[in-house]
Amino acid sequence: MRNTLSRRRLLSLFGATAGLSALKVDARAAPDTPWDLLVVGGGNAGLPAAIFAAERGARVLIVEAAGQIGGTLWLSSGQMSAAGTKLQAAKGIEDSPQSHYDDIMRISKGTADPQIMRLAVFNAAETFDWLMDNGFDVRDEHPITGTTHEPYSHARYAWGKDGGRSILRVLNEQLQPHIDAGRVSVLTSTEVTALVQSEDGTVTGVVTRDATGSTRLHSARNTLLTCGGYASNAEMFEQLEGARDYADVSYPFSQGVGITLSVAAGGYVRGGEHHLPLFGGTLASDAYPAPMIGSARPWPPERPPWEIYVNVRGERFLREDIASHDAHEQALLAQPDERCWVVFDEEIFSRAPQLVRGSFSGGWTQEDVRFAFDDGMNMFFKADSIEELAAAAQIDRDGLLATIADYNRGRADGQDRFGREHLPLPIAKAPFYAIQLQSWLLSTYAGVAVDDTLRVIRKDGSAIGNLYAAGELLGAGQFMGRSYCGGMLVTPALTFGRLLGQEFLELA
Fold this sequence. Notes:
Layout (H helix, E strand, L loop, with lengths): L6 H6 L2 H6 L16 E4 L5 H10 L4 E4 L15 E3 L4 H5 L6 H11 L6 H8 L2 H10 L23 E3 L4 H17 L3 E4 L2 E8 L5 E8 L4 E5 L3 E3 L8 H8 L5 E2 L8 H8 L4 E2 L7 E6 L6 E6 L12 E3 L14 H9 L5 E7 H6 L5 E2 L7 H9 L5 E4 L2 H8 L3 H17 L18 E9 L6 E2 L6 E3 L5 E7 L6 H5 L9 H15 L4
Parallel strand pairs: 1-2, 1-9, 2-5, 9-21, 10-13
Antiparallel strand pairs: 3-4, 6-7, 7-8, 11-19, 12-13, 12-18, 13-16, 14-15, 15-18, 17-18, 20-21
């Protein structure tokens, strides 16, 4: 699996950026007074960096490609995790950053980046407390150990009542006084097309292009890239992670521009080898990447499985009632095209709790699911026999017949070959059903390499002068390795933005 790109290949994915990548300008020739901090991307990491830098008296410019600041916080569920917070203390929960670190290394099986993780978790509580002190409101029952990812050993997982917008509301309220005072300026609907470097490689500013096509040079003492990942750039996704991008569910401005800019400046990308799909997407079409219309993402403690899961060979590939999201995700990773089918019969369909849930566009009822089968909706298959079902869903017929017979025998004997314990009904009563489930991701695993103060680095470990990076641009692979750890995308982004504005940047 490839996890790096040649400089020439990566730049070819962004023709306009590549055309400007070699631009060299003497900082003394810049047309305006240099900004103390120029932030590329006004989201999870960029906004707190601007807020805390402005508190130190810095002049800050935020350049945002979208028409409004906020980035993925507009779509995010706003999951956070931090150890040793005031909220935990108020609820009598004893926790520590070391325990948080140990949990992530356990869940990721040692694949998370130790340096990045320590920086994130040992500074997370201060970030979380700052948000809470300024109006961030979490769900009443939180913090919890977690249900949508592998659980933590302590209750440190907390969601905003209004998802990511709960966080964005606080950030906007903290940013506005600095905008009003003239310490922070914001350019929206404006792209950064190139980093400007002096002869020694130090970054001295950026070139922007606005919605009218006008370009401008902005000089800066510090440039911070916080412009997200590449989840909406299918070609870059496949190049960096070695897998296809099947589901179109991400922020449209997550195009990987920060990666292209960093590589053009001499940086490099790491972490793509940790690619791990989410389980259970149902898509609107097979014209990938396709919109996601629903999901069947199992969590056995809440909804034990009545069905079986098979791959294209018709084989089961995991114990369906294992109480581990990670087990499901790792098993899906090993299947051809990261694809599987959930298979069941009429009696299971009639008696089991609903399996398919809505995605981001609304909920599903059981009647909706029946309509999907009857109408022949993409990925929903119904037939009067197992043989016909296999043909319709393009699953190996002999494999599916053998698997269902084996499952039914094991259920009757109470000896399932995978050790499954929840075995309520056989798969025996026509009609028979299959739903194709496809991998999907909201975030991306490869990211820009940085040092312990978030300076963008070259492969030899040397830092590129005045260039920093934070947020999803660093890649989920550095924060979580080959795993999903609750709250470990939003929280590190906010934390790293705070640390940059508060401590790391030389603003004087």
